[in-house]
Amino acid sequence: xxxxxxxLQRRRxxxxxxxxxxxxxxxxxPEERERAEADLQIANAEPGDYVCRTGRPVTYWFGVVDGLxxxxxxxxxxxxxxxxxVPPGGWFGEGTALKREAYRYNIQALRKSLVAGLHVDxxxxxxxxxxxxxxxxxxxxxxxxxxxxxxxxxxxxxxxDIRVARSLAALFNPVLYPGVGEVLxxxxxxxxxxxxLSRQRVNEALTxxxxxxxxxxxxxxxxxxxxxxxxxxQF
DNA sequence: TCATTAAATTGTT
DNA sequence: AACAATTTAATGA
Length: 235
Known about the structure:
By secondary structure, this protein is α+β, with helices and mostly antiparallel strands. It has helices at 3-9, 16-19, 30-39, 94-99, 120-129, 131-156, 160-171, 188-195, 199-211, 227-232, and strands spanning 11-12, 41-45, 50-52, 60-66, 69-74, 80-86, 91-92, 106-109, 113-119, 183-184, 215-218, 221-224. The protein binds a DNA duplex through residues 187-189, 199-200, 203, 207, 217, 219-220.
């Protein structure tokens, strides 16, 4: 219970390399950008750390600068349902930040990660002043809606190969996660946690996907060669 | 910069 | 769940 407290305590400013990882900064005017950069903070999250929890009031709009997070929710039975992973370049919580409500999901670090935060007040200021920012948020909301619907479908799928394929495809979404290029840094163990399968089965699925030319398995990562095939399952 | 060692990740049973 | 093989990261000369 104290882990996320430490996360909030050990914050610092962002260096130029980290600022370069934030996709929406380039959409702002110089003045807007200055204000945003002045407010941005960054913190380290250790594996298992909570970045935000269900029911907590929204104080920040978060983004992943480096690492990998997991977005999940606990249903009535006490079971944890994973919605998606959040790779570098991904920002989340805009829906709840907009309405200044409480978070509706948990965000947990799967591995050592760098998480940036923009205060809700600055978030709203940008909404009120920046057209570029509004475009970004609109796009973001739209894409995420599509992703949640896809996540529902994935959850109901029985074929593990297809599940892994779809989950990977979601992580390679160029709109939501522009920080992810050709290769996604993710271990098979992390992917297993995300999809809800054993590491062995994920390994098997990756081999299958690779044999169909949809991906290339690399040490500590996956390279996507045919995103369309991953999405549709047409190998 | 290179060689050695430890740690992480993968592939297989 | 456990194992060996492989890759990367860290260390120090």
